[in-house]
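[step 3/7] fold_predict: job queued, chain A
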Amino acid sequence: MEKDCLFCKISHGQMKTDLLFENDHLVVFRDINPHAPVHLLIVPKRHIRSINDLTESDNRILAEMIMTARQMAKKEKVNVSGYKLLFNVEKGGGQVIFHLHLHLIGGWDK
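[step 4/7] structure written:
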């Protein structure tokens, strides 16, 4: 855990956030600045700075993030209408919090 990382604090219960999902590896919560009616963040509990810091041993966590996003899309009822999954990578790619996270964005009217 990185001591100054917002997502580390959230995933380790040091900062109050309504978690929509939690298991041994991930937490899911709503983005505080949503860009859509449904905007969730799927965050690994282990600190990984960005996509650029992944190693071969991280394949499982990436698969788990995507499968959890799929489950959350169904729970939020956007699985049929559609949604986006997005990783922002580094500052130039829009990453603001330097802890790996996957955005699930959807819920727009047709």
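[step 5/7] annotate
The chain has one domain: 6-106.
Strands lie at 19-22, 26-30, 38-44, 83-86, 102-106.
exit 0
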